[in-house]
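Same chain as my last thread, 322 residues:
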Amino acid sequence: MRESPATDASNEPLTDSTIAEVEADLGVVLPPTYLAFVRATNGTRLSAVVPCSGELPRSLSRYVSDGLVSVGGIAGIVPGMDDPTSITCSRAMRDEWGLPDGLVLLDGDGHTWLALDYRAAAVDPPVVLVVADLSDTVVVARSFGELWGAMLLSGLVYDRDGQLVERPSQPALVTIARELSLVLAAELHALRPAFANETVCAVALDLHPWHPVLEISILTSREVAADPLLASDDEQAAWLGFHATARDGVGLSRHRLAHALRTEWDLATGQEARRAVFAAGGEALGSEFVGAELRSWRRNAEIALFVSDPDDPRSENLVPTR
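reply #2:
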């Protein structure tokens, strides 16, 4: 599945003031990874499935075919809209369909819904499947980031007759890269105020999977003007923004993903398999979610993005060219 779904063109681009207004109305703090997603898309339509990670109650088994939950879209944020394409519909839809309080609805058809479950956690809540008129729910993903990482296009799973083609699976590094793309975008958003008065010319992902280390470094034009040699990512330890990664918001997710990359590194056999670990970081840093965030920064015409193997002097930059 693509990392950068098509924007719902009917929804306006988001501002921080709009997000704050909607959070106050809903009485929740929205997950940073969800916000990174909607800043790039503000809602999207999908034809996808995600494996159900929780233990499935018998009452919900008829709604989860082949252990997969259907996803028809991800609601954006449009103040005042009671249509399910915006999470602002949550209160009205809960009342209409008899759903529990504490749910922020992401997708649904009136009877079955995917929702952020704030009954379970006030910060970065799990995503659950809930059915109108039933008290049971099942955890689909432990967080919005995990939901996006695990999602698969329906066309890769089912044939035209709706029959399961094969048991769906996705390489672990693909899942990690897709979730990491949201985590990096969210952390860069948290860092933006610290660099508001600087022109940024480079962002590097310092990745040492064997430690594991997974940190953002930021280079400003002012530094390069004083010392042009700093423009190389080999010099990022000397950047003023070295390991500038925000310590709140999605720090726990980044820490978990760093350990997941270490697992993949430990399993890797051969140069290409080890290169793929760094390439996953490159895919994440080069994603549309990170790009959408960086477009709002004060920056050079193009911000250089770097991910490479720090222990291999011959390693090329593994951020893909879009």
